[in-house]
Specification:
The complex is a heterodimer of chains A (419) and B (165). Helices cover 30% and strands 25% of the residues of chain A. Chain A has 419 residues and is α+β, with helices and mostly antiparallel strands. Chain A has two domains: 43-152, Rieske Iron-sulfur Protein; 166-416, Naphthalene 1,2-dioxygenase Alpha Subunit, Chain A, domain 1. In chain A, strand 15 and strand 16 form a beta hairpin. The N and C termini of chain A lie close together (11 Å). Chain B is an alpha+beta fold and 165 residues long. In chain B, strand 5 (124-138) and strand 6 form a beta hairpin. Classes of the chains: A alpha+beta (419), B alpha+beta (165).
């Protein structure tokens, strides 16, 4: 709080239609974000299907911190910090595996995969020590929604369901693409590093203004149906769900096409096995609706982006250093669909992807661009005069409008303001 | 087995082919590079190790012949911003070995190492890889039927890789 004026620095930096360039480049602001966002709110960590069996583990992250997601012998999913409680050494050096325990290589302290300290070398030196006080650190709260596991370092605060709010429905929609109602994350991750602030990535995910320009090279040569979705005449919407969650709702365009699987550039005829399983699972009418509407395009604040056919996890490492972890979404009981999802994902995203190589180029150029401080502001006013409320009360705008960015910054300011 | 003379001749033709491919890549001669492929060519840059199953797991690039053509066409538009302006590139190809002179299908298995220096708008980046090829004689000329590029750091987060590797 600025004692002289009564105006908080965040109010000064974040205006209704513009934000200050320093928000992307100031190292002190990045440190404040770690504290107020990444180490406090619900952050997506991993998916239950990545640790299907007892004692499976996979190494994930919350910001720069390494987090081990384990499934213990009781079947419970734990989020443990990869840091020995003795002298801080990392207890796990492999990306995934199956282990009942983790033994620190430094002094051989051994931890069960639920975090308990179960033994240390030469224990007579620790006479009277309570092992329970020396467990691995853990993410304070762990909750999952339809298999998506989130963690929060805050002991108190909104539940995951409260945090997801209206955006939970997009995950409901997503899992219905599977005839068994489940997403599986089984195809491995591409890890794409960019020399840019994480919020350039966050804001771009539901920016419907850029595709016609940034992706013109691939739309021009690939007979892609995507381009039209983001044109001036598109009936698709941008939506702000609150709590920083944003969406590009392409359903109005897909419903106009009225052709099942058109959202994925294919047809029922080309996916006969999938189509039959969907009709069996949901009945002809509901299956047809699901297969017309397609999967969501939603950015769950601050780091989970579901992009119709793939999933990105945004990881900030430094003020100008970020990683996009990306994999094809896989739907349980849909092998023919899954194969195509993997092929399309590999073509479009990752370090050599037809789409993401250009997006990432924009992130890096924006980051270098905002180091220039005149004008000081990023202007986010597109569509401000024409945004409206949908039937559920969420703010929506034209697909090319900056409703999502404004929603993200409104929530960001709430998190960063001193309580 | 090939005679010593014919083996030396083959090795020299393979070396010339690999150097030529390297130069075409470094100098962004996309169409000439595309002509080095056979009609069934596969261009593969795995992620997370050398031995993943590309039909099940994500790769950085896993292009069949038509996707190789699409990649080249995107580069040719001049609006693929990650390569506009183009990276400045020079690569060294070394440790060329004939791995199998006469496999059953007639393709020649060849391997090499490469070290690539890329200078782009972002920064200077050093890339290192093991390259594994299957080469084939088509109308008297060597062609690539399969190229696998195993980046040394393919298990880590890597920067955009939008030039021809």
């Amino acid at each position: 709080m600025n004692m002289m004026t009564g105006v908080s620095p965040w109010e000064r930096l974040i205006r209704p239609d513009r934000v200050h360039g320093s928000l992307y480049t100031d190292p002190e602001i990045f440190e404040a974000e770690l504290k107020h966002i990444w180490y406090r709110t619900w952050v997506y960590v991993g998916h239950e299907s990545e640790v299907p069996n007892a004692n499976d583990y996979v190494v994930k992250s919350i910001g720069p911190q390494s987090v081990i997601m384990t499934r213990d012998e009781q079947g419970k999913v734990n989020l443990l910090l990869n840091r020995c409680s003795h002298r801080g050494n990392q207890v796990c050096s492999f990306e995934r595996g199956n282990a009942r325990s983790f033994t620190c290589p430094f002094h051989s302290w051994t931890f069960a995969n639920d975090g308990r300290l179960v033994g240390y070398a030469f224990p007579d030196g620790y006479e009277g020590q309570d092992k329970a006080q020396l467990a691995l650190g853990r993410v304070t709260r762990v909750e999952s929604y339809r298999g998506f596991v989130f963690g929060s370092f805050a002991a108190d605060g909104p539940t995951l369901k409260e945090h997801l709010g209206g955006a939970a429905e997009t995950i409901d929609r997503l899992v219905r693409t599977s005839p068994e109602g489940e997403v599986e994350i089984t195809a491995g991750f591409l890890k794409h590093r960019v020399k840019a602030n994480w919020k350039f990535i966050l804001e771009n995910e539901c920016d419907g203004y850029h595709p016609a320009f940034v992706h013109t090279s691939i739309f021009g040569v690939a007979d892609s149906m995507i381009g039209k979705l983001y044109g001036g005449a598109s009936t698709a919407l941008t939506r702000d769900y609150g709590n920083g969650h944003t969406e590009i709702d392409l359903r109005p365009e897909f419903r106009k096409r009225d052709a099942p699987m058109s959202w994925f550039g294919t047809s029922e005829e080309r996916l006969p096995d999938y189509t039959a399983r969907m009709k069996m699972a949901y009945g002809d009418t509901a299956a047809r609706e699901i297969m017309i509407d397609g999967t969501p395009h939603v950015m769950i604040f601050p780091n989970l982006f579901i992009a119709e056919i793939q999933m990105f996890v945004i990881q900030p490492l430094g003020v100008d250093d970020s990683v996009q972890h990306v994999t094809a979404l896989q739907f349980k009981g849909a092998p023919d669909l899954n194969r195509r999802l993997r092929q399309q994902t590999m073509g479009s995203v990752g370090p050599a992807g037809f789409l993401l190589a250009d997006d990432s180029e924009m992130y890096e150029r924006c980051h270098r661009g905002v180091l220039a401080r005149n004008p000081e502001w990023i202007f986010l006013g597109r569509g401000e005069k024409r945004e409206r409320r949908d039937e559920l009360g969420f703010t929506v705008g034209h697909v090319t409008d900056e409703v999502p960015s404004r929603g993200i910054w409104t929530h960001y300011r709430k998190l960063m303001e001193p309580v | 087995m090939l005679s010593r003379e014919s083996s030396a001749t083959l090795m020299s033709a393979i070396t010339a082919f690999l150097y030529r491919e390297a130069r075409l890549q470094d100098e962004h001669q996309y169409e000439a590079w595309e002509k080095l492929w056979t009609d069934d060519g596969v261009y593969w840059v795995p992620a997370n190790g050398a031995d993943i199953d590309p039909e099940r797991q994500m790769s950085i690039i896993y292009d069949n012949r038509s996707r190789i053509a699409l990649r080249v066409r995107q580069l040719m538009t001049g609006k693929h911003f990650t390569q506009t302006p183009q990276s400045n590139l020079r690569r060294l190809i070394s440790n060329i070995e004939l791995m199998d002179e006469q496999p059953d299908n007639g393709d020649i298995a060849v391997a090499s190492n490469s070290l690539i220096f890329e200078s782009s708008l972002r920064d200077d980046t050093l890339w290192a890889a093991r390259n594994e090829y299957r080469l084939r004689h088509v109308d008297g000329e060597l062609r690539m039927a399969h190229k696998k590029v195993i980046l040394v750091n393919n298990d880590k987060a890597i920067y955009t890789l939008s030039f021809l590797v």
